């Protein structure tokens, strides 16, 4: 791993596992990322073996913090309750222990939406913002991260809020995937997003919304039409956020 990197980040998804050394002074990759397709049968052993392969590829020293963004709520020392995007054999597994054993070193695991939110708070659109920031990722579902005065409130699942009797799960009504599947125009989709963000606004009174996910590249097509009082800005790190945020989070835990 080159000298400009202070930590190593991994972002695990249902289709791909991405990793890179991270320059924590700039909040960017120190070397181009390595992406390996997620195994078709994505068991803990199969996924952990790929993470080990990525560590070996970049020759990551044992002294470097290693952070892994994972698509599920993570509670250190506790076993996983459910899994949506990987093999069901993950249920009942201590995720941190699995990766630490496979990698031959301690690693830090964090929820993927939390990792992305931390990256934006530390290096991106929410940098320097006091108060409550709610970062959301609009994709297959809706991921959320709550950050209060720079401190993460982990494992929120606010994408599943009940909007009304007709829509008991927000992400099934307002995610980016729903927009594509129902062939919604951006303005029509923004009306759905307004319902969602207005509910977050009502419950939490945030100081800033940050919208991430791949669709944030087209933010000018829908963010201006989301009618809420809270300022809304697009994410800046986009597809790098998970890796950068995981690396940053791991560095804070190692220091602690």
TrEMBL record:
Q: Which InterPro entries match?
A: ATPase_NBD (IPR043129), ROK (IPR000600)
Source organism's superkingdom?
A: Bacteria
Q: Pfam families this protein is in? A: ROK
Q: Which residues form a coiled coil?
A: none
Q: Which family does it belong to?
A: Belongs to the ROK (NagC/XylR) family.
Name of this protein: ROK family protein
